[in-house]
Amino acid sequence: MSSKKVFYHGFNDIQAANIVKNLRDLHDWEPVYMCGADDQSIKQYLGENNIRCTLQSSMKLRQAQFDYTDLGNPAPIDSVLINKLSNFSINYLGFMQDSSGWNYSFEERKHFYYDILKYWNTVLNKIKPDIVIFFTWPHTSSCYPLYLMCKHHFDIDVLFIDPTPLLESNAHFIGTSLESLHSPFMKFYESKVDLLPSPIVAAYLSKIRGKQAQIPQYIKDVYTRDKKTKYKIIEGLARLIISTCVRRTPFKRDFEFKKNKEHYTNLKSRMNTLDDILFSESLRRKNRYISKVYNKLSVTPDYNKKYLYFAAPYQPEAGSAVNAGFFEDVFVVLDILSATIPDDWIIYYKEHPGSFLEGFRGSLKRSEVFYKKVCSYKNIEIISSSLDTFKLIDASQAVSSIAGTVGWESVVRGKPTLSFGNGWYHGCKSVFKVNTVFDAKNALAQICDGWLPDIKDVDSYAASVELVTTKYLIHDNFHEELEKANDPLIELKKITDFIFNAYQKYFQ
After folding, report:
1. What is the spatial distance between Cα 273 and Cα 276, in angstroms, rounded to a whole number?
2. pLDDT at 318
3. Which residue in 347, 349, 337 sits closest to 443, CA to CA?
4. CA geometry: angle 206, 207, 211, nearest 5 deg
5. Could you give the CA distance from residue 281 to residue 329 in angstroms, rounded to a whole number?
6. Where are the alpha helices (DSSP H) in 360-476?
7. How far is CA 476 from the centre of its chain?
8. d(CA 293, CA 277)
9. I need a surface site. Which of 166, 399, 402, 455 has the fewest CB within 10 A?
10. Closest CA to 35 of 108, 165, 125, 144
């Protein structure tokens, strides 16, 4: 196999850099550019292993610090490039993080978008990589434009590790398109071979279908980690005082959030360590407040009514930003559902519990105004976020989400689901993938006529997912899980093979 020039994004530390080294030593994949962390330990590791490539801080790019010193003259963007990416630009403008929602003006967002496109245009024209590999979904203000340019303009091979642990066995797959997450499974799923899940996956499906069904373990783990690491302002300030006074460490500006009206290229417009502590405390209080607002507006659901259960996504979050596409705006979805459900149905809106957790950022996307707008629909009612989601699924006429896990859970339990955006399960024929008002009307008409998911079809899709994914892969909570492993090098080699084999399958 010929040598490949590879651009790595998000391989942020020595452990992940070990994967880069493995791919070079085993497969002659020569790293030419790495974007992520650029601290001294990474530089030292690369030097010791004779890895000579450009190292770029992703945070500096997110802070609009564009350095062309080693790149030469910038390569201008033009209308051809901008037009190719125009379908994605409106959502992207919301990626830039703003502590109040008013510090990043529209003009600044637009200028930053063009700045980052110009920067990546310069880099890609200079280094000309054969492959660009992302450690997770490209979802930030710096890496998402890189993905778009590779995928939709330069036609460069793209790989990313999908971070969602599937099948309750920490199974992951390598994706090549954020716009079609399900595409890796379709070769097996659409084959004429009768596919049956393994005993492990069959047990997983049976568990979801049972009376004791529970939310996935990886979601529980996120909530548990939040409780353990919940930011306490006193502890945060104490650590900051110690590091500042004793260690003489100045406040760091390793944050993307824009905190004031200073120009976006000025580092004084970005949060420092103290700002981040105070901001986290502010969010904690706001989350608590919107939880109270939400509970006051909530009603007790009538399980005897005909209703569509809408499970709202947690926002802001990678899945609901990148994978949702145009449906990142929840009200676009609610407009479609409200206008198309039968007159004798109601929509029960259940907020994602993560929106109110004190260590999360739900109040950046949720507010009293938001929930009052939800309640303004004539046929939508808010219900408690603590209600049993499986009971709501079973008593409903149909379920809807924006590529959420509940969409898969409902179809596994034999309940019709209308799913918006792009989810890994959207290739399943038993899922109604909704893009238009007509799609929603058509789906609801079939549901009213008694249509139900085909359980055999759902099992076949799960079997297809199993054939493509690698089980028990360390990715979620990467560093802590790697430290727990009996042999971290074996786990890193597993990821190495995972990436290489996926490339062989998709592009060779």
Report:
1. 5
2. 76
3. 337
4. 105
5. 26
6. 368-375, 389-395, 405-412, 437-448, 455-468
7. 12
8. 25
9. 455
10. 144
Check: CB of residue 346 under 8 Å from CB of residue 305.
yes
Q: How far from chain centre, in Å, is Cα 462? A: 21
CB atoms < 10 A from the CB of 459, how many?
17
**Residue 437 confidence (pLDDT):** 98
Computed from CA positions of residues 269, 275, 281, 285, in that sequence, does the dihedral angle turn out positive or negative?
A: negative
pLDDT at 13: 86
Give CA 423 to chain center in angstroms.
10
Q: H or E segment at 349? A: strand 345-350
Q: Rounded CA gap, 306 and 108, in Å? A: 47
Q: What does the pLDDT read at residue 249? A: 59
C-alpha–C-alpha distance, residues 188 and 194, integer Å: 10
At residue 35, the pLDDT reads: 95
**The 4-9 sheet, strands edge to edge:** 54-57, 29-36, 4-9, 131-134, 157-161, 174-175
Reduce the DSSP state of residue 60 to 3 states and report it: helix
How far is Cα 10 from Cα 214, in angstroms, rounded to an integer? Answer: 32
pLDDT at 401: 97
How high is the pLDDT of residue 20?
96
Place of tokens 């610090």: 65
Whether the CB-CB separation of 29 and 4 falls below 8 Å is answered with yes
Instruction: Specify the DSSP element, H or E, that contains 390.
Output: helix 389-395
Domains and CATH numbers, the chain: 4-161+477-507 (3.40.50), 199-217+300-465 (3.40.50.2000)
Instruction: State the Cα angle at 355 between 352 and 358, rounded to 5°.
Output: 140
pLDDT given at position 79: 97
Mean pLDDT by 10 residues, the chain (508 residues): 90 92 96 90 91 93 95 96 95 92 96 98 97 96 97 97 93 96 96 92 95 81 62 64 62 85 96 89 93 97 97 87 90 98 98 89 94 98 96 98 95 97 96 98 98 97 96 90 92 96 93
Cis check: omega of the bond before 316, within 30 degrees of 0:
yes
Q: What is the pLDDT of residue 251?
A: 67
Looking at residue 241, its pLDDT comes to 65
Bridging pattern class, strands 157-161 and 174-175: antiparallel
